[in-house]
Amino acid sequence: MREAITAKAVWRERGRRQLASLRFRRIAAADALLVLAGAVVLLIIACAIVPGWIAPYAPTEMLTDNILKPPSTDHLFGTDYFGRDIFSVVVHGSRDSLFIGFASVLIGGLAGGIIGAVSGYVGGIADTILMRCNDILMTIPGILLALAIAGALGPGMFNIVLAVAVASIPGYARVMRAQIISIKSRTFIAASSSMGASPMHIFWRHVLPNALSPLLVMATIGIGTSILTGSGLSFLGLGLLREVPDWGTLLSQGRGYLTVAWWMCTFPGLAITLFVLAVNIIGDRLRDDMDPKKRRVRG
Amino acid sequence: MARLLAGRVLSSALVILGSLVLVFAILYVLPGDPTDTILDPAVATPEMVANLRAQLGVDQPFHIQFIRYFEKMIQGDFGQSLVTSEPVLDKIVEHFPATIALTVASSLVSVTVGLVLGVLSAVHRNRLIDIVARIIGLFGISMPTFWSGILLIVLFSLQLGWFPAMGSNGWRTLVLPAITLGIVGAGFIVRMVRSSMLDIIDEQFIVTLRSKGLTERAIMYRHALRNALIPAVTMIGMIVGEMLAGTVVIETVFSRQGIGRIISDALMAKDLPVVQGVIFFSAIVYVAVNLLVDLSYSVIDPRVRRST
């Protein structure tokens, strides 16, 4: 009788341990993915900051005896029509591409955050007017709005940033407003107010710090979206014709040589995809960690 | 129901009117003069510019310009191209069918692939199919369409020769663009359906259903799926809009004729009336689709029907 119980206990213990190791393995896999994504993001940011340390050739160097060569050990991504080393051009091009992504998120997130915060905290007529404008802005799909703005402003790096930023404002404004409204109605705000704190004090000290994190998560994912929209605009020809093309421009240049040099389009696009993918993985994780329901069971 | 319908239609009309004012205002405020498109700045005298401005009506204040534009627009006159002086509406009507075909085809791809993978992924959580679906979802939202489209061209037209790489005649030319654009929408839908299904599976009423002895299959497909569909339907309205907007890039990649092509060509030529016309037209279509989606809630979700 005793032995039977111990046997059962051993089985139960073994089962529990197996379950624990399974759960551990799953979390470890998720963490490994996160670390990998972080490494990709850091590597590409490093390319943008110090391209000269990473690229083997100058992005403008034309190796005239090496035109349209497929990828090899000398030229990792092959060479293009001008005999430029594509790997070096992609490394140098990361600067403008990332600039579009980060700058437009900064401008769009800040503007959207301010609009949403005013709308949510002040309420009343200001809220109604701002949110109606926001609804209207939302009816025009992002890239169309960005196209209209970029088209009217003309080609140029900053114009693309502005266009992508404006198109992203409504999303940020909506999230920020919802967050501010939900925090405003919590008891600790009423408590602070009843102790005589001024509305400005409550806003800066209590409401805003508690409302920021969803906006930050959204901004993280927004970096990926902005890079996609921004490089789409430069693919359509709205990027400035600079000496060192950004990834979108590079793809539109390569499109003409599709039949003879598949590598000209493949690698710049791969760079965009890898970066956006990594940013999305990080963004997903941040969002899950904020959601108390998902914090317990991940997967 | 009739009151609900009237209310929704009215508010949609107001939103469209608002977006007209907004786009008009953006293009009005931004620098750039339409006379630059027509006259060569090097040879144009100030009188020529002034005459042309008066002729186009761009010397008037904002509200007068807008009212004039609006009056013409409701009579079906979206103005004329500054480059070809062709009526904008003719251009739109001529090219719209190709864009609609692509939008519908890619929306179908998105919704079918997205729903099927999303549901399978949630039902078989953490199994192989789930992992595959999540990878597809993640790639779908991370790849630029102008890249995935080019890869499909290289593989399926240049290497295998199965489908044409360009053009807009016949269904064969539609396959690659529809897949390219459809993957994006599918990515969004997979992620959405999966997470909303998983949320619902955690809810109390599912425990109740299990404890009353319902089979897992019935719980998933009859109860969880039906509840998870509601947020997914909202998403579909958005997806159709995104597909419509995505045609701008796709039509360039696959050299298709369509309104996306018109707008990017018009942007290059600084042909603002055409840009305006196409954006207004797309906004109207987008709002109309979302109105339909809104109304379809009451069919899918009895709770909405009862509350109105």
UniProtKB/TrEMBL annotation, chain A:
InterPro entries hit by this protein: BP-dependent_transpt_permease, MetI-like, MetI-like_sf
Keyword Transport: yes
Bilayer-spanning residue ranges: 32-54, 98-124, 136-154, 160-176, 215-241, 261-283
Cellular component aspect of the GO annotation: plasma membrane
First and last residue of the signal peptide: none
UniProt-listed CDD domains: TM_PBP2
Pfam families, sorted: BPD_transp_1 (PF00528)
GO biological process: one example: transmembrane transport
Family of the protein in this entry: Belongs to the binding-protein-dependent transport system permease family.
Record-given protein name: Peptide/nickel transport system permease protein
Organism encoding this protein: Paenibacillus phyllosphaerae
Lineage, opening ranks: Bacteria, Bacillati, Bacillota, Bacilli, Bacillales
UniProtKB/TrEMBL annotation, chain B:
Domain (ABC transmembrane type-1): residue spans on this chain: 96-297
Residues passing through the membrane, by range: 12-30, 100-123, 135-158, 170-190, 229-254, 274-297
Keywords, sorted A to Z: Cell membrane, Membrane, Transmembrane, Transmembrane helix, Transport
GO CC term (a single one): plasma membrane
Subcellular location: Cell membrane
InterPro entries linked to this entry: BPD_transp_1_N, MetI-like, MetI-like_sf
CDD domains in the record: TM_PBP2
Membrane topology of the entry: Multi-pass membrane protein
GO-annotated molecular function: dipeptide transmembrane transporter activity
Family: Belongs to the binding-protein-dependent transport system permease family.
Name of this chain's protein: Peptide/nickel transport system permease protein
